[in-house]
Each structure stands twice: as C-alpha cells, then as structure tokens.
Amino acid sequence: MRPFRRLWAVLGLASFGDWLSLFATAGFAQSLFDDMAAKGFAFSGTIILRLFPSLVFGPIAGVFADRFDRRKTMAVCDLVRFALIASVPTVYIATGSVPLTVTWLAIAQICIEITVLVWTPTKEAAVPNLLPPEKYETANQLSLATTYGIAPPLAFGILAALERGSAIWSDVGIWAQPMVIALYIDAAMFLTLAITVYFFIPEISGRSGAPRVKGASVWSEFLEGWRYVRTTERVKGLIYGMLGAFSGAGILIGSGTVYAGTLGAGDAAFYILAVFLFLGLGAGIAAGPRLIGELSRLRWFGMSIVLAGAGLALDAVAPWLWVALLGAVIIGLGAGMAFLAGITLLQKEVGDEIRGRIFGFIAVSARVILMVSMTIAAPLVGWQAARQLDLGVAVINISMSRILLFAAAALVVWLGITAFRNMDDKPGVPVLADLWSSLRGRPLSAAVPTDSKGYFVAFEGGEGAGKSTQAVKLAAWLKLRGYEAVLTREPGATDIGMRIRTLLLDTGGDSAPDPRAEALLYAADRAQHVDKIIRPALERGAVVVTDRYIDSSIAYQGSGRSLGKGEIAWVSAWATGGLKPDLTVLLDVEPEDGLHRAKAGGEGDRLEQEQLEFHQKVRQTFLDLAEAEPKRYLVIPAGPTVDEIAHTVREAVAERLDIRTEATRTETAWPGLDTDNSQWNNVAEEAGRP
Ligand SMILES: Nc1ncnc2c1ncn2[C@@H]1O[C@H](COP(=O)(O)OP(=O)(O)OP(=O)(O)O)[C@@H](O)[C@H]1O
Ligand SMILES: Cc1cn([C@H]2C[C@H](O)[C@@H](COP(=O)(O)O)O2)c(=O)[nH]c1=O
C-alpha cells in the first residue's frame, strides 16, 4: 500500500501540474500580446494545440507503457516536461523575442502533450500492480477525485493568487510576471516528480503479466492492442460504453451554450448547468459505490450509462431551468459512476502485458470522439430557427440543440443497453429488483446455471388443500405417459431434510424454533433438496413434481410469521440458486375447511396448530403471489372433487409439456413414489394403463 500512497501523491501533483501547465502556458501566451483579439487567439490556440498530438501520436503512445520499464518511462516523461515547461519563459527572458517565444511555445506544447499521452496510460497500467484487486475501486475514486476535484481548483487558486500578488512586485522584471513564476513552479514540480518516481517507487517497475515478446515492432504491438479490443467481448463492451458516454458529453458541450439560451434563463445558464453537471459527476464518483453496495459492477456500468442517457433526454425536453439542472446532475451522476466502474473493471479484466495500450487507446479515442462530436454539434445547433411547442403548462422552445441532445440521449441509452447485454453476469436476474435489493444492501444472487431439459411443477396451498393427493396423481399419470417423473416434497425429501422436518414440525417438548431459525431451517432443507434431487432430475430431463416449494416459505414465514415476504423470498432465492418452478399449481382452500381436512380429528403438527388468523394471512399471500405472475400459476379453488382437480391439472401440464419442454420419455422404473399401492393402482387405471 505504501508504494500506492506514494504513487497517489505523485498522481495528485502531476494532475495539478498538468492543469497548471495548461493554463499557465495559455496565460503566458496571452500575456505576450496587447491586442484583445490576439490575446484571445493566443489563449485558445495554445489549448487547441494540445489536442493535435492525440490524433497523430496517441494511437501508439500506449505501446510505450507496455514496451518499456514503467518507472523509467514515467520518470523520463516528467524530466522532459520539466525541461519543456521551464524552457518556455526562459526563451522569452533570454531573447525578448515574441515571434521566437511563440514558435517555441507551440513546439513545446505539442511535445508536452506527447509526454502526457505516454505518461497517463503508463500510470494507469502501473496502478493495478501496486494494489490488491479489491482496492482498485477505492484507489480510482481517490485518483479521480484528485484529478478533477482537488487539482483544478488548486491550480486556478495559485494562478489567481499570482495574478493578484503581481501587483505588488510588477516592476521587478519579466521573470516576476505571474505566468512566468507559475511556469517555473510547474517545472520544479515535474522535476520533483521525476526524482520521486525514479528513486522512491521502485515497485512501479514490477510486472505481473506474461513476458513481452522480444523483437516485436511498435506497429505489430499496436495492432495486437486493437485485436485484443475487437475480440474480447467484455472489454469491447466496456470501451464502447465509455466512448458512447464521451460522444454524449461532446454533443452536450458543443450544443451547450445555444441550448442554455433556449431555457430563457440568461447568459449564466450555461455555466450553472456546467456546475451542476460536475456536482453530479463528483457525487457519482464519491458516493456511487457506497450507494449501490454489492451490485454487480458489470451491471452497474451499463446502468450508469443508461442513467446518463436518461439525464440527456430530460435535458432535451426540459421546459424550465430547474428541470435542466436536474438533468445535468443526472448526467453527471451517470457519467461519473460509469467512468469509475469502467476504469476499475478494465484494470481487473485487462492483463498487465497489454494494459498500457488499452488505456492509451481509450484516452485517445475519448479525446477524438469528444472533439468530433463537439465539432459536429457546434455548427449544427444554429442550423434551423427554433420552434415553439405549447404544452399548456409550459412552452418548450424546440431548437436544433434540443434535437441534438435527444439524439445523443438515444445513442447513449442504446450503447448503455448494448454494454449491459454484452457484459451481464447475472442473466435471468431481474434488473430493477436486483438494483432495488442492492440499494437495500442485499443484491440478488445470480441464478446457478442449470442445463434443465426437464420440467418443474410445484403444488402450493394451505393445510389440507389437497397438494399431496394431487402431486401423487400427477406423478403417476406422467409416469404412465412414459415420462421420468420425480415426486418429491418439502420439508423432508432428503436425509438431512428428514431430520430438519422433525426439528420443524415436532410438537413434543418446549424447543420450538424461533421464527428466524424456522425460516432458515426451511431454507436449509430447500437448498439440500434442490441440490440433491431437483436440479439433477431436471438435468436428466425428468419432470419434477414437488409438494410445496419457495411460496410456502414466503406465505408461512414471510407473511404468517411476519418476517417479511421480500426477505424470505431473497433467502429462498439464495438457497435455491434462483431455481423457479415452470408451473405452480395453487390449490386454494378456506383455512377452516383445509385445517379440518388436514387434522382429520387429530391435533395436527406445530404449524397446523397456529391460529386461524395465521392461516388466513398464509392463504392471502399465496393468492397474491399467483396474481403477480399469472402465466406461471394455475389457481384451482377447493370446490371440485379430487378427480376433477386432477383432470384440470393434467390438461394444464400436458399442454405445457408438449409445447415448452424437451422432457424425455423413458420406460424406467417408478422412482421413489412414496405412497400406498391402492392410490397408485387407482391412478394407473384412470390413466388408462394397458
Ligand atoms: N378436492 C378434495 N375434496 C375433498 N377432500 C379432499 C380433496 N383433496 C384432498 N382431500 C382430502 O383432504 C385431506 C388432505 O389432503 P392432502 O393430504 O392431499 O392435503 P395437503 O394439502 O397435502 O395437506 P397438508 O398441507 O397437510 O400436507 C385428505 O384426507 C384428502 O383425501
Ligand atoms: C415448505 C414449507 C412448509 N411449511 C409448513 C407448512 C406445513 O405446515 C408444514 C409441512 O407440512 P406438510 O404436511 O408436509 O405440508 O410446514 C412452512 O412453514 N414453510 C415452508 O417453507
């Protein structure tokens, strides 16, 4: 951790130095001219010059990070920056020539940017080697906060202080001009960085990936980086997502000033929007991970991009400034979280030997996409006169800038969804339920992959509803139709389950389990049941018929015992690895009638002895579960006879089996039908056994 702390200090100083050098050189260039227009041109020209090297040199800059010793590469880059930054004011002081100084400044700017292009991916590639993977996210939070939250205000603060202070020492000489001093301070800082990196963080030299192939050309290494991006699905998804977010940002910046005008909130609107955007960005980076807790980072990445797109869409239609500000915060939140998640995932996914090229590729593509989308958006915004849409409550000015924002929103949402689909590590787990559970501290677990060729039917209902009777009948009928039918039940289908059943349902003694213990015992029985009986049977292609499953826990423990339906559903989903029945047959009976049937004059087990009110809550919960998912449930009221109900169940199962499953027809022996022979014979006759 100590090397990382040093690297983090280096990173903080370097980003401070970068901001300072960018604005000090621009300010210095400006100070060389008296004419206002020339001043403006000098300032923006100096900044624009910085963008060109990305296009030419950017694509291969990352190769350096993978090719050479990273510590030496960083130290050399820092030394070069020291020399270049110090040379700019020195040339002016030594020659006093404005044309010469401007020419040298332009050359120096390009060279400085080249060193930044090499330094940045080198640093990004080095960080994962100094930390355990579980610390990457926090480290990225720290470095992003330093780069965008602490370094810029500090740099601007120093520049402002020097400008103000120069009034006191203005007559001392050229060397005491504020921007000259700023450039010398900046140069000194890069010298310090070079020394620190070279002598005090030797760990940066360490490598963890496969050794580099000696003799490979820069070009072939560059192409290898490209191939890696194209052929590695997750990395491709990450990069597309991040670049999509940058294109949205470019369109937002390019159309920002004109868009701000459509809000009718004065000239300051653009700057206020920018402030809110950055506030959202900071909040997303600082608080995002804590907010989403254990949510899958792969899912979080795609969701964050979609959130940023939603913010853009909101801005596109915002009729008032406050709505637009809300949109800006949402864009910032989404972009900040996507950026953090994206970088952290890339550090984990990409091997050390190629990491520099990948980060170099992202840095360059981001710049290019930002520039291209800004350049396209800027002239387009003024293309057509604005029209007005009167909504009654508000009038929206539909300008080209809003249309562009909407197009950007659509693009970003699409890329977010595509990235989500390509990278989802919890297929089958509902997205919103997973997000909601994660916000509450309990992400849903990914379903355990089951190669199910079979079909899974569960019978549910209150006491005495007729579940056991119907389960036996269905299993026997299926068997006679040639299916391998596995008849099973909860609790107590396995050896461990039988022991748990005794603990749960025995009425003797005063050792009844506490409600939470009871819930966990049912979950434990179910985990064993699924693992030992249900899942293997489904994988063989059998039809599994179970007498009770998850819904019983939700109804009895979640509702009857008031432990919370959501909590119990979550525990059960975890215990079963997310395995749900294909069909749940709910036999609905009035609790009084069912209990009467079940007890058959006896005392009944521990749960059957509960109050009527308990059983009424249980019944209602079963009905609610069925209502929420009508396609997966068949609800049969208690009225009809045993045979009539059996007929309805068979019809439903037959229809679904033919259409939806590959359940195999076999002539194997009856597997574990634990019922008496008379019942079996009756069913066999009914089923038309030859
Ligand atoms: N449709 C029906 N009409 C009348 N009696 C029925 C009907 N279905 C089942 N029974 C009878 O009700 C009693 C309980 O049936 P069964 O054991 O199948 O119910 P269950 O839902 O499995 O009960 P438990 O929840 O106690 O396990 C049995 O005596 C059975 O014969
Ligand atoms: C699976 C399951 C069951 N129960 C209760 C419901 C019944 O009272 C008994 C099981 O008895 P049965 O005669 O075998 O139906 O256990 C429960 O409370 N929670 C559950 O998850």
TrEMBL record:
Region (Disordered): 665-690
Keyword Heme: no
Enzymatic reactions: dTMP + ATP = dTDP + ADP
Record-linked InterPro entries: MFS (IPR011701), MFS_trans_sf (IPR036259), P-loop_NTPase (IPR027417), Thymidylate_kin-like_dom (IPR039430), Thymidylate_kin_CS (IPR018095), Thymidylate_kinase (IPR018094)
Any one cellular-component term (Gene Ontology): cytosol
A Pfam family hit: Thymidylate_kin
Membrane-traversing stretches: 45-64, 174-201, 237-262, 268-286, 298-314, 320-346, 358-381, 393-417
SUPFAM superfamilies (alphabetical): MFS general substrate transporter, P-loop containing nucleoside triphosphate hydrolases
Domain named Thymidylate kinase-like: residues: 459-645
Annotated keywords: ATP-binding, Kinase, Membrane, Nucleotide biosynthesis, Nucleotide-binding, Transferase, Transmembrane, Transmembrane helix
Binding site for ATP: 461-468
Domain of life per record: Bacteria
MF annotations from Gene Ontology: ATP binding; dTMP kinase activity; transmembrane transporter activity
Enzyme Commission number(s) of this protein: 2.7.4.9
EC class of the enzyme, as a word: transferase
Any GO BP: dUDP biosynthetic process
Function (record text): Phosphorylation of dTMP to form dTDP in both de novo and salvage pathways of dTTP synthesis.
Matches recorded under HAMAP family: Thymidylate_kinase
Family: Belongs to the thymidylate kinase family.
UniProt cross-references to PANTHER family, sorted A to Z: THYMIDYLATE KINASE (PTHR10344), UMP-CMP KINASE 2, MITOCHONDRIAL (PTHR10344:SF4)
Name used for this protein in its record: Thymidylate kinase
